[in-house]
Amino acid sequence: MDGSGRRLAKARLPEGVAGMARLHAMIGERVGEDAEESLEQVVIGIETDRGPWVQALIAAGYRVYAVNPLQASRYRERHGVSGAKSDGADAHMLADMVRTDSHQLRPVAGDSAQAAAIKVVARAHKNMIWERTRHMQRLRHALRDYFPAALEAFEELTALDALELLAKAPDPASAAKLSLTQIRAALKRAGRRGDIDAKANKIQAALRVEHLAQPAVVAQAYAATVRAAVAVLGTLNEQIKTLQGQVEEHFGEPGLGPILGARVLAEFGDDQHRYASAKARKNYAGTSPITRASGKKEVVAARYVHNDRLVDALVSQVVPAMVVSPGVRALYDELRARDIDHFTACRHLANRLVGILHGCLKTRTLYNEKTAWSHRSPKPETSAAAA
């Protein structure tokens, strides 16, 4: 499409090198031979910000804009209300969108290869944790249906001792026969600290409590599913630990901590020109509130369209930050004193910490507690002398 919106060419391109070569040829026919200067004037809209095609387009020198599918959907409604949709029409719409509204869009960030590597391992690590949570919830539901005593005995179903004992005795009858020696051995192999004997006695007592039971054949069927779930959870635990090592190896020792810091870097990227201001970074993070105002009515609400991975890491940062930062703790206590709930207070603090992070990155300085919270320090009292 040219600058006036007239379509110059249309084609369905295959995946891989052949498709990219065909795209370069189509563009080359229009821009001429003075490639380096002309290619900078070519803008491309695409509904993703990652993958080999995006990297190849950036490497070729084009200006690439990743258009959020929600933005594309809203833009489509500007030109038609029928609801019709096709790949060709979407391609035309994206080209028209970056032609007219590129000043409203954010170009794909030019992150380094190191940042891209961190993003791969950090996202894979978080995916494994989410997958483990899903399987743990399935296990919890199964135990509630036929073996509720296990839920009383094991506080954490993904712990090594719980998985070992459930694999050894996945039904009420066999669990009631577990000896203290077997339970103590499982606790020690899991690295439990404290009074092992007391913990073992508590688990054994919980497993032997009377409860409403399923017929024996049904209990055995459930036990088979529990053995499978326990095996999956054991494998996930191992892979999460392995990927955690990969995250720490790629990321090093940041102030946020090796895991949360890697996730924040992975989602923000390391392109120094991507965020023009602290507000832009907060908006991308999804921690800043949005205001809806019309006439005399004004509503301030949380952002519900955001990067889930980034928000999860930023909000998770708040609780450990309260332990080591007096400024974070003081602001949290102040918010709670105003009857603001815990999650809203954490989101507010996450928003503040994103602003501090942006300032550190912009000025290339390390975090300093006194500087970061100087605006909240009590001002010294002044005294006036009577004449």
Automatic annotation (TrEMBL):
<feature type="domain" description="Transposase IS110-like N-terminal">
    <location>
        <begin position="1"/>
        <end position="148"/>
    </location>
</feature>
<dbReference type="Pfam" id="PF01548">
    <property type="entry name" value="DEDD_Tnp_IS110"/>
</dbReference>
<dbReference type="GO" id="GO:0003677">
    <property type="term" value="F:DNA binding"/>
</dbReference>
<dbReference type="InterPro" id="IPR002525">
    <property type="entry name" value="Transp_IS110-like_N"/>
</dbReference>
<protein>
    <submittedName>
        <fullName>Transposase</fullName>
    </submittedName>
</protein>
<dbReference type="Pfam" id="PF02371">
    <property type="entry name" value="Transposase_20"/>
</dbReference>
<dbReference type="InterPro" id="IPR047650">
    <property type="entry name" value="Transpos_IS110"/>
</dbReference>
<dbReference type="GO" id="GO:0006313">
    <property type="term" value="P:DNA transposition"/>
</dbReference>
<dbReference type="InterPro" id="IPR003346">
    <property type="entry name" value="Transposase_20"/>
</dbReference>
<feature type="domain" description="Transposase IS116/IS110/IS902 C-terminal">
    <location>
        <begin position="254"/>
        <end position="332"/>
    </location>
</feature>
<dbReference type="GO" id="GO:0004803">
    <property type="term" value="F:transposase activity"/>
</dbReference>
